[in-house]
Task: inverse folding
């Protein structure tokens, strides 16, 4: 990597940020595109976030990504936030516009849909979808499903009140019919009845952790199963669904495409998605 006096800066802020895979993914793409850019990680303590945003803009950075714990805290610090980011309640990509404005986006929903398209799993247009979880990832998935014109979304969560709150907000804010179910045998059965797509938007199954209490017999075609966990690449949920003949997809594609969309926001160029995917796989 060659740094010059004209090198354009982008990066990721988080706390901690040493675990991030984003530099590997983005710097591989930058090299593929032949740009005089560099993508760097910046550890930013929560109480230093406002000055970090101002500082990155002051030194001429084109923008940055944000990870835990800054995604939610960024919203009031920016000049403008996309409607999708406002609904999700989190910003993962910031663009410093040439006119001086700082604009916040959330690329997770579009990354979710691009990964589906790439995998050959049809978005649930006019169909019912079930989402496991009610946190930030589930909000991004709900936004994606609304964009895909899902007929109904069922939010299933251990804390039923959180599922109810997300369903009500999705109904009001993004115009999709949504309802809640508790994370019980009966609730899961109701959510999966007549469902085209099941999405796990929780960390269940990550790195060998306990999976979701879903009866294997409920995982049958034509149901498709999308688990946003990418480590391991095949969770217990995906393994069972695949064995039963369902189409399945893990979270690596979503991770790749949300990063690609961020790079496209900054550069105006089409991101080399396959190069970014291979860099992620190597880093993993």
Result:
């Amino acid at each position: 990597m060659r740094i010059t006096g004209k090198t354009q800066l982008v990066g990721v802020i988080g706390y901690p940020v040493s675990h991030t895979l984003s530099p590997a993914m983005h710097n591989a793409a930058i090299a593929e595109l032949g740009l005089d850019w560099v993508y760097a990680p910046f550890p930013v303590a929560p109480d230093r976030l406002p000055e970090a945003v101002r500082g990155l803009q002051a030194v001429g950075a084109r923008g940055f990504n944000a990870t835990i714990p800054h995604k939610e805290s960024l919203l009031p610090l920016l000049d403008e936030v996309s409607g999708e980011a406002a609904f999700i309640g989190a910003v993962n990509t910031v663009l410093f516009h040439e006119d001086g404005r700082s604009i916040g986006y959330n690329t997770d929903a579009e990354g979710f849909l691009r990964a589906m398209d790439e995998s050959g799993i049809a978005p649930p247009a006019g169909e019912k979808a079930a989402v496991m979880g009610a946190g930030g990832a589930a909000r991004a998935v709900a936004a994606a499903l609304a964009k895909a014109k899902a007929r109904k979304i069922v939010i299933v969560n251990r804390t039923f009140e959180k599922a109810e709150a997300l369903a009500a907000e999705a109904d009001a804010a993004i115009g999709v019919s949504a309802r809640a179910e508790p994370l019980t045998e009966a609730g899961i059965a109701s959510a999966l009845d007549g469902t085209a797509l099941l999405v796990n938007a929780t960390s269940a199954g990550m790195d060998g952790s306990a999976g979701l209490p879903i009866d294997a017999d409920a995982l049958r075609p034509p149901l498709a199963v999308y688990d946003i966990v990418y480590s391991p690449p095949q969770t217990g949920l995906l393994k069972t669904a695949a064995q039963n003949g369902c189409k399945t997809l893990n979270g690596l594609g979503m991770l790749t495409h949300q990063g690609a969309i961020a790079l496209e926001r900054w550069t105006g160029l089409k991101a080399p998605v396959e190069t970014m995917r291979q860099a992620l796989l190597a880093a993993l």
